[in-house]
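haha ok so turns out i had the wrong file open the whole time. this is the CORRECT one, sorry everyone. sequence first:
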Amino acid sequence: MGRLTARETVGSTKQHLEELNQKSSRGVVYVEEDTGKIKVGDGSSLYNDLATIGESGKGNGGYEFTGGFTDRVSGTAGASDIGNDVEYTTAMVESNAWLRFGFDTARQQANDQPYWGNSATNTDEAPHSGTTDYIGKGVFSGAYMPQDVNNMFSFNSNDAYNAASTSGTVYNAATGSYRMDELNVGDFCQFRFDFNLTPQFANTTVEVGLIWANRDASNNITYTFALTGEPLFYGAGTTGETFLNRPIITAYLASDEDVNARALPAIRADQPIFVQPLTTLFRVGR
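then structure:
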């Protein structure tokens, strides 16, 4: 079968639309044969109608990205893979503790400044260097967040979740949290945690996950647990070498307590290691 020409394709589309008798509030919808534009019965364009339809469905899912970790005092989010060593100690190994990595307002403002060269400040476009829209949001200034979502990170939280735990699920004190409170039950979340890791001993196993705390409508924590992915293993010849890791942890928001939950990335190992927290990408799919 031969390939249809552009004119034949347009004509065919027009024919099908007329056969289906699709209507708008102003008449029959058709394709103008000479231009290929979608028109209505009075000859006006459907451009504005389609733009409105497109806008209504915009941003069903989305993402934001930050390097605003308290422990990252060097490097720029997205522009470098340089960080600062945080030690996972022998004492942590012996207590089977998780090392959480919190967020901080000062580090977010310093680390998340957009680094690309275009200095345009038109907030209707993607964020560019020279703007301050990124402050309190992330590298992309909220431009790609899900519809009706204003923040995906909290950089200064002072509640029970941020305190250390010395029993049950053991972890350190850390500020901030991923924010799910503007999301919906049924949303699918992906949390990518980017970090450098340097084993101090061969044959080291490292768990990566989120310390997740469900909260009720009064913000009381109801249940705290480690939400983990596949463990990392560093075998012979890895001692003293530094490895860049970007594991992804997933979570379904299955209830209102999930939507109101707190969460931070964390690691746990069976031998001492050095970790450099770099960035995290929080993505929501719907």
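The first strand starts at residue 23 and ends at 24.
again sry for the mixup
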